[in-house]
Structure formats: structure tokens, C-alpha cells
Specification:
heterodimer, A: about 200 residues, alpha+beta, 5-stranded antiparallel beta sheet, 3-stranded antiparallel beta sheet, 8 strands, globular, B: about 170 residues, 8-stranded mixed beta sheet
Amino acid sequence: MGHRDIPVLETERLVLRGPEPQDYPDFKATFASYRSRFMGGPLNAYETWMLYAAEIGHWEIRGYGMWMVHLKETGETVGMAGGWFPAKWPEREIAWIIWPDKAGKGYALEAAHRVRRYFYEVRGWETAVSYIDPKNLDSIRLAERLGCRKDADAPSIDGSDAVYRHPTLAQLQGQLGHGIAMEIAHYRDPLFKPKGWALD
Amino acid sequence: MTERLSIPVLATERLRLRGPLEADFDAYAAFWAGPRTVFVGGPQDQRASWQRFAANLGHWALKGFGWWIVTEAGRPVGTVGLHHPPYLADTELGWVTFDGHEGRGVAFEAASVVLAWAARTQRPARLVSTIAPANTASVRLAQRLGAVIAGPAAHDPDAMTHVHDLQRYAA
């Protein structure tokens, strides 16, 4: 599967599509910002463009990669979510990033939950991890909301990141999956106001 | 596994230029980890090399041109191609020979066939190579290809812009 036939995934509020040239300015704005500090950023113009090209190249090499997350209602992009597996990495990762002004609306939770189901059900993944900077509290919290557990025995990328192990498909089919679906549903309620700080 | 990028195959008498395959990555990363990358922005670790490798494929998808892997008798010996990130004024021609394959005319032969392909199919307004003066091997290669020095590069004042003669290769 190359970058030209990336499947389109849908959720209640979101449409996930392959990254397109016209989405680049949104990506660039986030990776030039402090928001990207846990993902190797902020990046200069060259680094940002190379990373965007790499997002598309990843689809070519692996047959999966990161989707661009759009709002169904307006079509605007709010972030990216998907699978990431560079050469020599210990395991396949489920990853996400939400643009700084779109955080706190549950988009990362909804998108990551959807791509995980795709990898389990369509691509036959048995397990997946997320490699997270220990200082990236929003992402650690999101991993926990997705049902992940810190896996101290799993190898990390370079020792500076924490490994969060995703629940299996079987584990998601019980109460855990229902809980995640319920939280996502809360975010669809216009009267729902999450307590505390904005989380992804 | 249906539609893949259709990267054209270019051939010379001894070389075959084709799209990057995952099997090329070890040779690619070995080059980028080594001291010969000093003039092209290296050395860099495997993680950065993988991103660059994937970006080469993404470049083809975004722009319709990019970098080829140069093979000789089926083995990767270098990488040559065109790149044009949106913030640069000109399309650039670049070349690299992997360790152990320098000094055999591989880069010249591959760059010539890419120049001809660019002149025939892409017709950029200007095709340049940005080369540090201390990188004497590449400066000589640019001269052999017929390029002329236009002055310091806008994005890298320590390097010179060599402008290629597209007319000559279009024929």
C-alpha cells in the first residue's frame, strides 16, 4: 500500500486521511512551535519539510503511517495520528500529535483509539506501544486514558523515553473499551467541560 | 500493497538508478554515519538517517521527482537526485557515493543521466548544486558536468551555487 491508497478512517467527529501537500502549512506551524518539543522540535524550515516528506515516505516503505486528522464538520486539520516504525526501532508505535490550539477536545483520544482498532482488526497487529518523553504529561495521561500501561521491561528507543504498552484487542472488547468510548462520547456533548487542564 | 510510487528507472552502461527500497537502508545509513558526510550535513545517527531516507520517498510523492538509489550489479553504490523543498528558490541536483565507491566515476555517470532526465522531463527554470568550496571532489564533478559558479548560495553563504547547463542536456 503506497501513499496514494491510504484508507480513509472515520469516527463520529473526525475523518482521517493521508497527508496531502495542502496540509503542510498546518503541520509546519505546529512543528515550528514549542508544542513539538517532545517530538524532536521545534524544527527549522528544512527539518520540518523533511519530516513531512518522511511522514509520506513511511507509508511507502511500511504500508502504514500517520494519518492527517480532519474535523468532519469543517474539513480543517487538528493533528495527526497513526503508526510509526522507523528502521531498527524495537516495536511498532501508535503515535499522535494535536495542533496546540486544538488541544483539550478529545481529538487525540478519538483518533488514536480509531487507528489502534484499524491496526488490530485490519492489519492484524497483536500489540503496540507508544514511546513517550517522561516529561510529556499530556501524552502520558492520554496513553493511560487509552488503557496503556507503562512497560518497564520493554526496550525503549534510546533510554530517554518511557514505553507504554497498549491493551490488546481482546482487552479492549470489555469494560475498558466501553469506558474509552464513553469518554469520547462525552467530548461530543457540547455541554461537557473537562475538569482541569486541557488534555489531548 | 497495490499502488506504489512510480519512480522511473534510469540506466547507464554500468549503473541502474531506481527508487529507494528498504533493503538499501543499511548502506545508506552507513554512509550517513561516516566522516565523508561532513560537506552534506552529516554525520548523523540512524534515526536521522531513516527520516532522511523516508523523506526521499515522500519527496517523490510530493513533487514528482526526488532521489534515486544508484546500483551497480544490483548493489547500492550511491544516491543521486533532485530536490526542491518549498522554501528554496531553485531545484537542486545532488550526488553521494557510498563508502568504497568513490573515485570510480559513479557520481559523474549517475548525475549526468539525472541531469538529462531533468532537462527533458522537469525543465526547472534553474538547476543548481550547492557545494562548499572545500569539497573539491564535488566542485570538480560540477565542472565536468558543465556547471558554472554563480556566487554564494542564498541559504548557505559558505557554499557556492553551481548552475547547470540544462540546454546542453536537453538535446
